[in-house]
Amino acid sequence: MKMNISMNNSYIEVDTGTLLGNARAILASLGGAELIPVLKDDAYGLGMAPVAAVLCTLPEIRCIALSHVSEGLALRAAGNDRELLIMSAALPFQMDSAVEADLTLTCGRLGFAAELAEAARKIGKKAKLQVKIDAGLHRIGLEPHELAAFAEEYHQNADALDLTGVYSHFSDAEDLIRSEAQYALYLEALQTLEGLGVPVEQRHMSNSAASELYPQFHLDAVRIGRRLFMDRTEHPLCDVKEAASWRSYITSLKQRKAGDRIGYNGAVTLKQDAMIATVGVGYGDGLHQDLFKVRAPVLVGGKHGHLLVCCMDQCMIDVTGIDCAIGDEVTFFGYDGSGNFLSAQAQAALINDDEGCGLTSALSPRVKRIYT
Questions:
Q1: Domains of the chain
Q2: If you compute the radius of gyration of the chain from its CA atoms, what whole number of angstroms results?
Q3: Assuming Cys at both sites, which of 227, 261, 269, 369 could form a disulfide with 47, CB separation 3.0 to 4.6 Å?
Q4: Three-state DSSP string of 234-253
Q5: What is the pLDDT of residue 3?
Q6: Residue numbers in the chain where pLDDT is lower than 70
Q7: Backbone angles phi and psi of 360, in degrees to 5
Q8: Dihedral (C-alpha) 149, 154, 155, 160: value to the nearest 10 degrees?
Q9: Model pTM?
């Protein structure tokens, strides 16, 4: 491991054993529904191709969900052969490459299926697609009044299309009443499509939050992103563990006096004498600046230091009372080298971020990704 990280100021370690354990725990909780890992945004910053390779050692993983065509093409280039569902709206000029790579595109507007069929005929192979129903999120998706027109469009182009599923998405999984209404709207849309002769091969609506709260909505498959890597922020189910840890090192230690001003433009004025550590990580690495506003904790020698000032490439931490030295480890979230734990979900909650995956997704490429 040290050979991989010695030239990097920080690294995020993904525990592949924990990742697999989380996936197995989720599979066991789904009552037979399929697990579709959501690995968008480079698997929430943890490395799309390596994470996919680990998860695909499980034979139950048949499909992976991504956001953009570029992600699907990258995962194909890495050798992944699973079905790859692209959940965002693909653009017309991306369709040829998507069909060539055997990506499954999402149809969320009228006209899309015809455009995709045209690309498929030009290439000489069927194009895979799934239909997205807008149940209330109002991002992309067919609305109830558009289903008849879609059915006509589909039947006109069915020779060039392989429709593998129809899905939707909750707008607020924490709101049971709203979620029940959206679920009912989705089921009505499925009945409408089937009545119009459109095949419904696979049904899925739940994401991580919905899968934790409402097992009654599991249907044929569940799309899981955040839950692969960490449990709920509030009232965790304790069936998954945090799989990633971000660590760096102390580069400088200085005793400062009360009244000293720390950082650009005197960002912080010390109220009392303090030992200040500098760490070679800043907002350029993806360290969230709002964490400094709340003096969020970090692990230093198994104890809590506190974030003080953030620059682009370095930050300053109050380590008063902590026995530490230059080169010692600093853990921003996850487990330190001695097994002490600082939850990414708890860190995110300090700044009202809804999920700790927002912290991992923000990490820049110069944070080394390693897999153990």
A1: 16-228 (3.20.20.10), 244-371 (2.40.37.10)
A2: 24
A3: 369
A4: CCCCCCCCCCEEEEEEEEEE
A5: 46
A6: 1-5
A7: -75, -35
A8: 160
A9: 0.94
